[in-house]
Amino acid sequence: MNIYLCGVNETLTEAIENINKNDIDGRTFALDEERDRCYVGDEKFREAPVIINYHNTYYAPEVVSAN
């Protein structure tokens, strides 16, 4: 699991763009702010390959393609 910590002025859109651009495994992710929100300890959090921490709110974006 990778945890991506958003910068102070960074948006979720910018975060997912950075994750997609820099993923070492070549995966592409998509983020739905409502569907992908997760909480520490829940199944989505535990199983996610990437977690976004956006102002102490967690998101587990979905993998849409893997190389």
Multimeric state of these chains? single chain
Helix amount, in percent?
10-25%
User: How big a fraction of the residues is strand?
Assistant: 25-35%
Number of H/I helices: 2
Topology order in helix (H) and strand (E) letters: EHEEHEEE
- Cα(first) to Cα(last) distance is 17 Å
Mean pLDDT: 95
Uncertain ranges: none
**What is the number of strand segments?**
6
Compute the number of structural domains.
1
Estimated structural class: alpha+beta
Radius of gyration: 11 Å
Sheet of most strands: 4 strands, mixed
Give the overall silhouette: globular
* Order of strands across the main sheet: 1-4-5-3
Task: Describe the protein.
The protein has helices at residues 12-22, 43-47; strands at 2-5, 28-30, 37-38, 50-54, 57-59, 62-65. 24% of the residues lie in helices and 31% in strands. With 67 residues, it is of the alpha+beta class. Strand 4 and strand 5 form a beta hairpin. The relative contact order is 0.29. The protein has one domain. The protein is globular. Strands 1-4-5-3 form a four-stranded mixed β-sheet.
